[in-house]
Amino acid sequence: MIQFFKSLYFGRRLFYALFGISTLFLLSFWFEILYSFTWILTSILLVLLFTDIITLYSGSHIDADRILPEKFSNSDENRVEISIKNSYGFKLNAEVIDEIPVQFQKRDFLRSADLLPHNTLSFEYFLKPLNRGEYVFGNLNIYITTFLKLAKRRYVFNKDQMVKVYPSFVQMKKLDFLAMDQKISLQGIKKIRRIGHTMEFEQIKEYVRGDDVRTINWKATAKHSNLMVNQFQDERAQPVYSVIDCGRVMKMPFEGLSLLDYAINSTLAFSNVALKKKDRVGMLVFSKKIDSLKKASARLSQLNHIMEALYNINTGYLDSDFSLLYSRIKKNLSHRSLLMLYTNFEHMSGLKRQLPFLKALAKNHLLVVIFFENTEITKLTEVAPQNLSESAHQTVAEQFAHNKKLMAKELQRHGIQTLLTPPKDLSVNTINKYLEIKARGLL
């Protein structure tokens, strides 16, 4: 009985009818002929109401399901499907209220639909998350009514469904085509830069005249009683690392996403392209400490490992320690690698504090410093000032924008590759920079 009353609601038509009947009872105080007529209307309304309730609770039911993807892609439109099956033998009207996760701050979700008898209805809607993490859906509430719309019956489905929001794998798939440049892989066109003896072990074989005696494997020779040599092949896969700064400078938001989220989305897309180019990809995340380090690997599973590691990364409120970054890279990365460093500098003084460590990194590795244009300031410089105050603001904005270009020139002057980009174009520009480096044979 308690469940019955919890599921029973009344429609607007009933309240409109009750308001009209109340008005007629009031008028019957002066016009007595309305009194008996109003009681007849009241009786008819009660009969219709009980008929409506009995019809809704006649033993038939509806089934509904919220179909979620395995994971959501951050900063992209993600599809959510609602499926409703009507087991009643007549047409129903349904109002669907889905309890969307609190992160979206959406409290007015309502969809109305007609349910045909013994039929299934499906519809979809899209959600765009702006933060990584766990998103919990609440109840899927469905209120059904007959054509009378005097009473409603409430159904509740799918309590507490959880979906995880990962870095933008949708963006990664969209940019996958950038790895399909066939010209780069054609023999005789791609530039190859060889430094030293970069060879990978392939197999052990018997010595034949002309083999390098320096490659003799003495242990294998002792076992086989014949001279055995190690055979090597040219090392093709180069180590490529995405280095992400998680300090306070990466908290700045643009169009709903923080700079850190832009960097994370770019790292995933860039790593996918690098794997397609047969390079080994890795990742390092740092702030006041080293938060995560994934050694470079060319395995297909490496992309999933990077995605899982990026899932829980958050910014802090302190400045990052670039001296710690330098010492950890010097200790753990013995081979010359491509380092794509995602960070941000707003003032020349901030760059100069970190410049000695950046120069030290660039001595042993190919370093690309990626930092961001302040697009809000750029917009301000493009607006014609209307008064003296706006003119002063525009002058300051132009100075900030000019400082960004000076910082890029300063890094280039010290032989450090630089990429200054708007946040929304970060992934495309980063991949293009990587492809440029591969084409020029700098790594």
Automatic annotation (TrEMBL):
InterPro entries: DUF58. The keyword Transmembrane helix applies. The chain crosses the membrane at residues 14-31, 37-57. Keywords: Membrane, Transmembrane, Transmembrane helix. It comes from the Bacteria. This is DUF58 domain-containing protein. Residues 204-389 form the DUF58 domain. It holds the Pfam family DUF58.
